[in-house]
Design goal:
361 residues; D-Amino Acid Oxidase, Chain A, domain 2; binds flavin-adenine dinucleotide; 2 domains; 27% strand; alpha+beta; FAD/NAD(P)-binding domain
Length: 361
């Protein structure tokens, strides 16, 4: 039996799942191949989406476009699958200096922050547990996505509809046809690779400068403190229930790429919580994963120079939840209508070789 679809997708992490959903929303058909035995970054992530990011705390890149899209996209998915994976929750940023407080109060006058800053708390929130001599800021249009809930809902549905194949994709068996590709018994107009960190085995995109970043997370349970905000200062405390259970994240480690959690990572995370929250807690679990990140922290989205039917959707780095819905639609627009992608995500923005050449000049 042979199958004909519009899109064949490789990888059912966040990228492949959101892309497949967007394919369906646009009226096209798909099949998705995923090796469930491989480690997957999406299932270990905190899932936080946050309009104010980075050490310097700035409005995240393309924030307005990304957030308009994600706020529509995830609730629709939840409704379709009858699950609750999208969890809007304000973020509380306790200031660590007078300067930060002053900077943010003046920044808040700028229109670009209008829909994101909920209010300033002069005395700070949760004063019993969080010392904030300089008060804090409450940011809205933020929260988290319970990614495993979403991936499992999609998986069940796709399996039932014969759209998901659980196997390792074998690159040697991909054939290029006149107007598409063939893989075993599947003929597709386009193939989209969404393999996260496993992209290193992909022969069609060898030139892209990926820089994987390891991350570790802890689950802890506070004895008394109960938060109904994500608390953010050099990392996040994400309350997941009313019993004091919180995810604590995350570390960023560029050099060491061992996937397992380390004592060093644990220490770093505990230091963050000890410096921020005055309460006892117990450690419940500790885990890690590798973010599929890139040399300039922008995704890699586009078409192979070897074939107009072979594409990639990867490099979502630390922001998969915010980036995936918007850029899935942009990639489909590009494929179907030839529209341009923003320069920052294009595959030809600067190849590894170009960078080496620049450095050696
Ligand atoms: C510790 C940590 C914390 C994070 N916290 C956040 C956060 O708070 N907010 C946020 O937005 N992002 C966060 N991230 C980042 C987020 O996890 C990623 O941006 C996103 O999940 C990447 O999704 P992906 O689908 O590209 O990759 P993956 O989730 O790794 O999925 C790739 C899939 O492809 C499959 N695959 C690969 N090769 C093959 C093959 N040859 N054959 C078959 N299948 C294949 C794999 O089985 C896997 O299922 C975090 C990441 C980590 C590690």
């Amino acid at each position: 039996m042979t199958y004909t679809v519009d899109y064949l997708i490789v990888g059912q992490g966040l990228a492949g799942t959101i892309f497949a959903e967007t394919v369906q929303n646009n009226g096209f058909s798909f099949k998705i191949i995923d090796n469930a035995a491989l480690k997957n970054s999406s299932r270990v992530a905190g899932g936080v989406y946050n309009p104010i990011t980075g050490r310097k705390m700035v409005k995240t890149w393309m924030c307005d476009d990304l957030f308009d899209q994600l706020e529509n996209f995830y609730p629709q998915l939840d409704e379709k699958y009858g699950v609750k994976s999208f969890k809007p929750m304000n973020i509380y940023f306790p200031f660590d200096s007078q300067e930060k407080q002053t900077d943010w109060i003046s920044a808040s006058a700028d229109d670009k922050y209008e829909s994101y800053i909920e209010e300033f708390h002069k005395e700070g929130l949760y004063a019993e547990y969080i010392q904030a001599d300089f008060g804090g800021m409450e940011v809205t249009r933020s929260g988290y996505v319970d990614i495993p809930v979403l991936l499992d809902a999609f998986k069940d549905y796709a399996l039932k509809n014969n759209q998901l194949i659980n196997e390792e994709f074998d690159y040697d068996q991909l054939e290029q046809l006149e107007g598409g590709v063939r893989y075993k018994d599947i003929t597709a107009k386009h193939i989209i690779f969404c393999e996260g960190n496993k992209v290193e085995s992909n022969p069609y995109f060898t030139n892209l400068d990926f820089r994987p970043v390891k991350g570790e997370l802890l689950m802890i349970k506070f004895k008394n403190a109960r938060f109904n905000h994500i608390v953010n200062r050099n990392g996040f405390i994400l309350p997941i229930d009313e019993e004091g259970n919180c995810k604590l994240g995350a570390t960023y480690e560029r050099v060491e790429q061992m996937e397992s959690p380390t004592e060093k990572g644990k220490r770093q995370l505990l230091e963050k919580v000890d410096n921020l929250v005055n309460d006892e807690y117990e450690i419940l679990s500790h885990w890690s994963g590798i973010r599929p990140a890139t040399f300039d922290r922008r995704p890699f989205i586009g078409t192979s120079d070897k074939s107009k039917n072979i594409h990639i959707f990867n490099g979502l780095g630390a922001k998969g939840v915010s980036l995936a819905p918007y850029f899935s639609q942009l990639l489909i627009n590009k494929i179907e209508t030839g529209s341009d992608l923003p320069f920052e995500v294009r595959l030809d923005r600067l190849s590894k070789q170009q960078r080496i050449n620049l450095n050696t000049k």
